[in-house]
Structure formats: C-alpha cells, structure tokens
Amino acid sequence: MLVSTLAMNHIPAQAASSFWMPAPNSTFAPEVDWLFMFIFWLSTFFFVLIVALGVYFALKYRRIGTTEVVVPSPSHNTALEATWSLIPSLLIFLIFGWGFVGFVDMRTPPENAYEVQVSAKKWGWNFTYPGGMQDDNLHLPVNENVLLTMTSDDVIHSLFIPAFRAKMDVVPGRYNKLWFHPTQVGENNLFCTEYCGTGHSNMNRKAIVYEAGGVEKKLEEMLVHMESMDPVELGKLQYIKSGCVQCHSVDGSKKVGPSFLGSFGTTRDLANGEKCLVDENYLRESILEPMAKVAAGYNPQMPSFKGQLREKQLEGLIAYIKSLKK
Ligand code: HEC
Ligand SMILES: [Cu+2]
User: Fold this and answer.
1) For the CA atoms of the chain, what is the radius of gyration?
2) Is residue 2 predicted with pLDDT exceeding 80?
3) What is the pLDDT of residues 104-126, one digit of tens each?
4) Fewest beta carbons within 10 Å, which of 31, 111, 204, 277?
5) Global confidence as pTM
6) Residue 2 alpha carbon to ligand 1 centre in Å
7) Which residues pair with 115 in a beta bridge?
8) Residue of minimum CA distance from atom 8 in ligand 1
9) CB of 142 within 8 A of CB of 175?
10) pLDDT tens digit string along 15-34?
11) Whose CA is nearest to atom 42 of ligand 1?
12) How far apart are the CA of 263 and the centre of ligand 1, in A?
C-alpha cells in the first residue's frame, strides 16, 4: 500500500459529480460550468429550431402535383438578414467576453499562494512541498490559493485535475504555472492528459485537499512513517512510487531497463565495452547519474533521480534491489 493512501479513510464526502461534470471543487468550477451549460443549451436550442423548421418547410412546400406554377421568391429581405446576422454576432461576443474573463483569471496567479513544485517524468509525478518533503500525490490546503510551478524531465506531459477545472501542459526546458483555489476537502483525480508513452496511464494520482494545517500534518506523518520503515519495505514502495516499475521488472523479464532480480553481485557489461560489478556504489550511481555507466544492450533512457529521493529512500531502493535474489 502506498504511504500517502494510509490514514485517508476519514475524509468527508464532497459535492457529488453531476451527469455532465465532475464534482465542482474549486472556484473555477462554477465559472467554467456556467459557460459550458450556456453554450450547450444555446446550441441545443438552435439545433432543434433549425431542424424542426427544415422538416416543417420540406413538408409544407413539397411539390404535390405537376401542374403548379413556380413563382420566383423575393431575392432578399433586409430586416430578416439583419436579424440573423446581429443576434448570432451578439451571442458570439457574449461567449467570447465571458470566456476571456475566465481565461485571464485562470492565467493570472495570485500573489499569495501555497506553492508546490511539480516535476513530471516518464512515468510519474513528483510534488515538492514547502519544507522539501516530496510525494507523488498532490496534498493541498482547502480555501487557499494554490500555485503549481511545473516542468518535465523528458517529454511533454500535462497535468489535469477535472474537479478543479484546471489543466496545463508540463513541458521540458521551461516552467509553466497553474493556479486554482480548492473549495472542498476530499480526494480528486489527477491525470496526465498528454499521451507520453506506454506508461502514460500510470500517471493517475490524487489531489487530496485537507482542512487548514492538514497538509503539514500529513507530510510530517509521512516523514515519520518513512523514517520508521524497514529499508527493504520502503524500497519496494519507492520502486512503485518513483515509477521504476515501468522500466525494471523484479521477476527477471527484460523491460526498458534490466531486471533487478538477481542483479546484485553480478558483473554488468557496459556499453563502452568495460565491465563493472553491480554493488551498492554502482546502484547508487545508476539511480543518480544513469548516464555515467550505461548497461550494454539498453538504450540510455533512464531519467536521473538526483534531488528527487531522500537519502533514506535511496538507501531503501538499494536495499530492495539487494534483497531480490534468484
Ligand atoms: C524510463 C525508464 C526507466 C525508469 C523510469 C527507471 N529506469 Fe533504471 N534504467 C533504465 C535503463 C534503460 C537502464 C539501462 C541503461 C543505463 O544503464 O542507463 C537502467 C539502468 C538502471 C540501473 C543499472 C542496472 C544494471 O543492472 O545495470 C539501476 C540500478 C536502475 N536503473 C535503477 C532504477 C531505479 C531505482 C529507478 C526508480 C527510482 C529507475 N531505475 C527508473 C530505465 C529506467
Ligand atoms: Cu505523462
């Protein structure tokens, strides 16, 4: 079980999702939903009106016999044409204005916000909180502005929290900002919504909103829990949370990278023709600087985990790999 899903059972129920929309759990939700519903019902109204008139006229003015004389119809009607041009134009300006106000609001982060650093990689999230604690789920305070500063280590990802109506690309080589204001305590789905490779669907996590002070308590709990864990257990957990599982098997099968099963203590052929003993030093270096020694027969695709793992987590991963004997 993941650390961050422990002790989450006492979270109160939140506003339900509707047939059309996920639960409205941020201040953006009412704005977005109103505009969506306005456009939806406006489109429905005109769809029904136009199709019904079309059918009605087709029946009413159909050719009944062969004796009818064709009368030329008027070539134009200024009042009618002005009406059908003006009303849609006004509606379009209304939709534009309404959408633009919302867009400017969403793209203008407020001054004082709870800031979380986001880094995405194939295939996982890493959220860094004030104070340095990190997790792969997003923990947030209720009724506060939240600002995410986001970047990617590899390809383009995109962070999407439907219940907040918040979505923004996460791009390598630049920082994108996304802000929102959660209004409900509870759990919300968080997705990567930019197809980023075979492990794309494994980037589903939770955005969990707490009462005031709850985030700090949760992060503290996670830290205490981590410190007290058996290194092998912690490593096993971290193997899943950090997404190593996407590229490394523990049953001997070859994935993107070599399997961890029985690798410790063996000799590894490197891409540069040298050989190297798989010991603690090699494991540590491989995790922090994957390019330093590349295993022969594999593409050097592994992202660096430098700065994203606590010493304790790194030791845990090494202990876990050591424990996987054939
Ligand atoms: C995107 C795929 C990918 C992810 C994610 C990934 N790795 Fe790797 N890893 C590789 C590849 C490919 C290699 C072999 C090439 C190289 O050495 O860089 C490798 C090599 C290694 C090696 C050297 C293994 C050996 O037997 O030579 C270790 C140790 C390692 N990875 C640990 C990890 C850990 C721990 C994680 C998670 C924190 C992780 N990797 C995440 C792709 C990945
Ligand atoms: Cu992604």
Assistant:
1) 28
2) no
3) 999 999 989 999 999 998 888 99
4) 111
5) 0.73
6) 21
7) 147
8) 302
9) no
10) 677 788 899 999 999 999 99
11) 302
12) 12
